[in-house]
Amino acid sequence: MRLKMTVNGNEYVVDVEQEPEVRPVPGPIVIGGGAAPAAAAPAAAAAGGAGPNDVTAPLAGSVARFEVAEGDKVEAGQVVVVLEAMKMETEIAAPKAGTVTKLLAEVRQAVQGGQPLLTIE
């Protein structure tokens, strides 16, 4: 769209473009349901590597809280840990049903993307 404007007696012609609206994806993020992103692989290796039963951080941040404790039974899709990054919280869901066998981080601990947070057997 082309607009004509006058500012302080000077005439200007401005082209305006409308960008498509981007909508956020609702729901929790499920980790471990598919292939890990390439960027997460170096962080996971630096953190000692994630096992097949580990739930990993999708991004760098700090652990805001665990929604489960060791020994708790969880269902696939259940929120198990909440990360905080840039004043925003990200819910991490269990990729499968099972029992939480070990918490691998602590509340308020800084974590890197790909770092294991807990283990579900």
TrEMBL record:
Domain spans labelled Lipoyl-binding: 44-121
Name the PANTHER family for this protein: OXALOACETATE DECARBOXYLASE ALPHA CHAIN
Q: Which SUPFAM superfamilies match?
A: Single hybrid motif
Q: From what superkingdom does this record's organism come?
A: Bacteria
PROSITE patterns per the UniProt record, alphabetical: BIOTIN, BIOTINYL_LIPOYL
* Species this protein is from: Propionimicrobium lymphophilum ACS-093-V-SCH5
Any idea what this protein is called? Lipoyl-binding domain-containing protein
Against Pfam families, the record matches this protein to: Biotin_lipoyl
Keyword terms:
Biotin
Entry's transmembrane regions: none
